[in-house]
């Protein structure tokens, strides 16, 4: 019934075929698969490392942005403070200059006032002399006295308008 020689030959043939397939096909396929697996694992590790590096870089960039914002705020605060100092200084200088102009104007007014008083005293003296000379030259009755006063006042008005302008 079963031929043992045939069974043995088929078994030997099968074993040889398995060994041949193992040597020719399984080993290269296994090496290819191992190599491919190693490449994929290396790519996964590289991707993980890249992801970690990207996360570190993102954190560094966020820190730099935070520092840049803080520096910008600090610069703006310093500029604002400096502008306020300059404004205060300019206001103080303007007040000092205005006070100096005011003091100078007051001195000039005082000098002009003193000059006007001096001129008035001089003209008053002249008028007194003029009045005395008229009184001496004329004997005065009531009407002459009033006329003399009116003339003196009109002369005084004329002198004031001419010299004080």
Which terms would index this structure?
165 residues, rod-shaped, mainly alpha, 2 helices
What's the helix and strand layout?
Layout: H1 4-137, H2 142-164
Helix pairs in contact: 1-2
Give an account of the 3D structure.
- This protein has 165 residues and is mainly α.
- The chain has one domain (4-164).
- Helix content is 95%, strand content 0%.
- The protein has helices spanning 4-137, 142-164.
- α1 (4-137) packs antiparallel against α2 (142-164).
- The radius of gyration is 61 Å and the shape is rod-shaped.
- 0% of the residues are buried.
- The mean pLDDT is 85.
N-to-C SSE string, H for helix and E for strand:
HH
Spatial shape:
rod-shaped
> Structural class from helices and strands?
mainly alpha
Q: Care to count the β-strands? A: 0
Tell me the number of structural domains: 1
Distance between the termini: 162 Å
Subunit organisation of the chains? single chain
Overall mean confidence score, pLDDT? 85
Unreliable spans are none
Main sheet, how many strands, which sense, barrel?
A: none
What is the share of helical residues? over 70%
How many helices? The count is: 2
Radius of gyration: 61 Å
Estimate what percentage of residues fall within beta strands. Answer: under 5%
């Amino acid at each position: 019934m079963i031929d043992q020689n045939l069974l043995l030959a088929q078994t030997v043939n099968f074993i040889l075929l398995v060994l041949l397939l193992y040597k020719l096909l399984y080993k290269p396929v296994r090496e290819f698969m191992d190599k491919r697996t190693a490449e994929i694992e290396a790519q996964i590790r590289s991707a993980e490392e890249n992801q970690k590096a990207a996360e570190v870089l993102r954190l560094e960039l966020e820190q730099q942005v935070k520092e840049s914002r803080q520096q910008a705020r600090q610069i703006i605060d310093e500029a604002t403070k400096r502008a306020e100092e300059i404004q205060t200084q300019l206001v103080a200088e303007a007040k000092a200059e205005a006070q100096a102009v005011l003091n100078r104007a007051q001195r000039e007014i005082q000098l002009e006032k003193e000059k006007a008083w001096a001129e008035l005293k001089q003209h008053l003296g002249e008028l007194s002399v003029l009045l005395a000379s008229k009184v001496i030259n004329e004997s005065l009755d009531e009407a002459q006295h009033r006329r003399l006063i009116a003339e003196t006042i009109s002369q005084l008005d004329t002198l004031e308008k001419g010299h004080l302008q």
